């Protein structure tokens, strides 16, 4: 009943997600159902661990990367949740890539390349 998910990061928030198996399941389920997934900052590592697939790429720097509808940006100047929200609203690279991934409703390339069935949920 959702079109996409976004994890904005924050060390404390991501540590809470890591302790919650339902959060892990939720990300994996979104991936398996071909939904767009966005991750910023520390949440990039969480999504990468949740998917654990060879061939996918994740941002480690300030460039937004779209890999099979999983849009990530690893480092920015944002230091708080409010700053992160403002950054995402103004950052055309991440916003454009994620908006496009969401507009597709599903990322069928994941299924065509056999990735959707490789993540247990």
Automatic annotation (TrEMBL):
GO CC terms, sorted: cytosol
Coiled coil ranges: none
Enzyme class: oxidoreductase
Signal peptide: none
Keyword Lipid biosynthesis: no
Family matches, as PANTHER family: CATALASE, CATALASE-B
UniProt similarity note: Belongs to the catalase family.
This protein's name: catalase
Organism, as annotated: Aureobasidium subglaciale (strain EXF-2481) (Aureobasidium pullulans var. subglaciale)
């Amino acid at each position: 009943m959702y079109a996409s998910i976004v994890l904005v990061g924050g060390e404390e928030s991501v540590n809470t997600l890591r302790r919650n198996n339902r959060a892990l399941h939720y990300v994996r389920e979104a991936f398996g159902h071909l939904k767009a997934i966005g991750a910023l900052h520390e949440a990039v590592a969480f999504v990468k661990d949740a998917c654990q697939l060879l061939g996918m790429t994740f941002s480690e720097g300030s460039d937004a990367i779209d890999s099979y509808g999983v849009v990530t940006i690893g480092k920015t100047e944002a230091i708080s949740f409010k700053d992160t929200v403002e950054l995402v609203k103004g950052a055309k690279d991440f916003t454009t890539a994620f908006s496009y991934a969401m507009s597709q409703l599903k990322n069928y390339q994941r299924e065509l390349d056999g990735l959707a069935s490789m993540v247990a949920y």
